[in-house]
Amino acid sequence: CSEYQKTLKNTDVKAKYDLAEKLYEAGDYKRALRLFEQIAPSYVGKPQGERILYFFADSYYKTEDYYLAAYQFERFSKSYPRSDKSEEAAFLSARSKFMLSPKYSVDQTETTEAIDRLQIFINNYPNSAYMEEANEMVKTLRNKLDKKSFEVAKQYNTLSDYKASIKAFELFLSDSPGSVYREDALFYKMTAEYNLAVNSIPARMEERLITAKSTYETLIKYFPEGKYQKDADKMLDVINNELQKFSK
Amino acid sequence: QETNIDKGKKYILGGIEVTGVKSYNEQTVVTFTGLQVGQEITVPGEKISKVITKLWNLNLFSDISFYITRVEGEKVFLELQIVELPTLSDVKITGLKKKKTDDIIKEAELKRGKKVTESFIANTKNYLLNKYKKQGYLNTKVLINTVADTSEANAVKMIVNIDTDEKVKVKDIVFEGNEKLKDKQLRKAMKNTKQRQFGRFWKKSKFIPEDYSTDLTSLIDAYKEKGYRDARVLNDSVIYNDDNTIGINIAVEEGERYYFGNIDFVGNAAYTDRELARVLGIKKGDVYNGVLLRKRIADDTKPDGNDITNYYQNTGYLFSRINPVEVSAQNDTIDFEIRIIEGKPAYFNNVTVAGNDRTNDHVIYRNLRTRPGQLYRKENVFRTIRELGALGYFDAEQLNPQILNPDPDAGTVDIQYGVVEAGSSQIELQGGYGGGGFIGTLGLRFNNFSIKNLFNKEAYKPVPMGDGQTLALRLQASKFYQTYSFSFIEPWLGGRKPVQFSTSLSRTLQFRPTIDYRDVDKDQRFVITGINVGLAKRLEWPDDTFQLSHSLSYQHYDIQNYAIGGIFPFSNGVSQSLAYTVALSRDNTYTNPIFPTGGSKFVISARLTPPYSLFNGVDYADLGNQEAYKDRNSNGYLVHVERDANGNKIASTEKVVATVDEASTDIAKVGQKKLNWLEYYKIKFQGDWYKQLVGDLVLRTNAEFGFLGAYNQDRGIVPFERFYVGGDGLGNYALDGRENIQLRGYPNNSLSARDGSTIFNKFSLELRYPITLKQTASIYTLGFLEAGNAFESFDEYSPFDIKRSAGLGVRIFMPAFGLLGIDFAYGFDPVSGGNTPNGWETHFIIGQQF
Hints:
The complex is a heterodimer.
Chain A (H helix, E strand, L loop, with lengths): L2 H7 L3 H14 L2 H15 L5 H14 L3 H14 L6 H15 L8 H16 L6 H28 L3 H14 L6 H17 L3 H21 L6 H19 L1
Helix pairs in contact in A: 2-3, 3-4, 4-5, 5-6, 6-7, 7-8, 8-9, 8-10, 9-10, 10-11, 11-12
Chain B lengths: L8 E11 L6 H8 L6 E4 L2 H11 L4 E12 L2 E10 L2 E8 L3 H10 L10 H17 L6 E9 L5 E9 L5 E8 L6 H7 L19 H17 L6 E9 L4 E9 L5 E8 L6 H8 L9 H8 L10 H6 L7 E10 L2 E9 L5 E8 L6 H5 L12 H14 L8 E8 L4 E7 L6 E10 L2 E13 L19 E9 L3 E10 L8 E15 L6 E19 L7 E15 L12 E15 L2 E2 L4 E13 L3 H4 L23 E2 L14 E2 L10 H8 L6 E12 L5 E12 L13 E3 L13 E3 L17 E15 L4 E14 L11 E12 L3 E10 L11 E8 L4
Parallel strand pairs in B: 1-4, 5-7, 8-10, 11-13, 14-16, 31-32
Antiparallel strand pairs in B: 1-2, 3-4, 6-7, 9-10, 12-13, 15-16, 17-18, 18-19, 19-20, 20-21, 21-22, 22-23, 23-24, 24-26, 25-26, 26-29, 27-28, 29-30, 30-33, 33-34, 34-35, 35-36, 36-37
Helix pairs in contact in B: 5-6
């Protein structure tokens, strides 16, 4: 029976505290955690609690249990708002949330929560040394949300529901004007409009061709020499050819 | 101590003392306030009041006050006086049985450690009073006392005395003033307040004030349905009798009977008066019926009812408001105006999905019937919910469409589908003794697999999921046989259209035991290897519940020293089969795939092999006469040999002959030639119809038919692919492409010949009743009548010569295990050879859904 096992069963809080801190300092976060879990409640509200709660939260963070780390760091920064670790805790709490954010193609509740928490951090600590990283994380998360909307809008085009795709891109372009996917969105919006036009009934074809052409012009205006230039030009040729038939 | 302080003077906090604490640590309270010695503080000021609010919000104290104890120059010393609320240390309930008191402590949350406030006591009392009144104990009295508990600091004991008295029943309900409707009709209208009556055990007589007042409304509704618009309750009284019963007297005024006059529609632009009148279905001169009118405009009981509101809702008018207004009442005729505010038609803006922690967006969005830019239609929302539920990735009971950001001015609306992921993997792990040794089975089935993440280490949590693909693996092995199978299904090949791609591989090895039956002889073996590739496309016509599927399958049968009397005329050789299957199916059952309550499901299919005999020029009838197919002895001389009933040569009869005609036919060689490439066609039909009869009771009607034929009668019907009718219908191990057809009440395969049948038909009626349809486990009971039979050939086919049976059973579906069930069935007819009814059979149903 090791000293650790003995201490785990021991009722002496002080002994647990000493060992837990030793383990934490030594980097054995997993074992330290089990001790912190036991003693944290009895130190809440006491002066040593500040130290313990921080180590407790940080152990979760170091063992990549971000869900609990986010919670414990938040608890810490709320319980000890004047602690000199408070800023760091608020940041790590937000960063834990950031780590929890899943891939773009599933539910993004954690992503929006992470953005909210990062934004609160940015507002509360405008002079923080972590500011740059916090801003970077917000940007990454926003891009993820944009990517999600963009991929959904693009999928409607793949499913041959061009009208839905066009509408979804319209909403995307107006809701996220500064998105990094703006160029892609414009190109795929044009693609959907092009598809709608060339598969159109004759009566509405001209009007739809003109819409596609105007999106092409927006694309070229904002992204001259863009990555889709070649494909867009190819579609434009077809559009112009078709339009000529109407001008006669 | 007297101090003069100006309003809101600034101090440095010199110290803080907490008084009045009983169970808390002073230090803890100070830390919680957030005040620190040495900080700047205004007294009185905002900071102090914030601390008070913060403490107050804890609900732990009944009084909180700050005092200045002394001022030393810039420093101020504060005292925080708090009065702690007592905590509950023990609850004693008198007047009830022990078991019930425990329930009450749980329900009313009378937990140790709760803060005992006045409102807590009052709430508890009200809760208990209501609880017993609802059960009919009208005279319940509840007394709650608190006593200080001396054994703990600041704790009280609660003593609850409950006197329920006897149940109070309604002795009689007396009506006055009713001429048009009889007492009986009126009593019937009062759904929850019933007179005491012998023999009516499903609805007990009790008096609950809330229900009673609802019943008075229903009473008036009963009049309104009959045209008595002015009917009202003049007065009602409840009389307590001495024998612990009550009597109810209700005096009504019926008034005149009214009729509908003109019904005008006002404000309708999208639909004409005539169209709306047709939906309304009420004509001038009809007896006035306020309840019906309300229902025809908006039926609250049926969200997808055929009423005017839904008529508008299904064509985009999300913002429409429809109000019937009485415009005039002359004599007994009432004219109505149905005032309609249509609003702008609503179009969808953002369509989103929330809650899909595992399933990828593209798998869900392709199934949505509401898309951005489309007109809002309520029925499309319902349909989306139904179809998302049918995917099996989500809990069908928890799908929740939410209308967000409705904007009547712009005519736009957002919708968010809330989903909850459901377990969609099944694992089967079995081990047991049977067939002379240990049999182990490992089956894995992932219904929401992601094949593209097969090599992505991060996606294993615990398996790559979320792309809606199905992957199944099954291994079964014993000493004498092994089967391996693998299958994969992608429901949307290419992601553009719902074209399902499926492929499967399987291999079965069967060995014979050694002569002493102790061990396995691997030299005597029968190996089947198969591959199958299929494509299925959802059709747009006649409607999109139809599906057309094609598949191509190849099987390789390798037989070594393995004589199977009858099925294979040879014991060494190879058979191959290449078949194309085309099937047309329809499935519009709803809503729960495990327990459909309506719709139908049918499959009609044809399985064809190429007609080799048309081109290869072999005269199969004449094979036995050709030299190459004659018996020869070990030296290669033509011989004549007699055969026994099983086709085995009788060695003693062998004699060398001179001419080909005299020699006997080697039936193994002929058999090998006939079966080198299998040649057959097979036609099948299966149909299931579901209908909700009364309440949750569902009737399933089923009919099945199958026929296996040969293109070339001389080549004969293949011994493969045959039907085996009878029993549970589970096909756990198919050596030869056989199909086991369920017919309960008879032993497995008992209605077919030993080598299988080539034609069968079957009908069944099944009544199902659900016990629970929760996500964790769905359970339903069933009772059935079945009839069917199998025949050797088309000439013998006689569709009404059938074997009948009846029985009862139960099914349990758990997501992790699939379907489990047991049926007890009685066969009314004898199986072949007997002449007494077959009698009772027990069938275990595992993993099959139907």
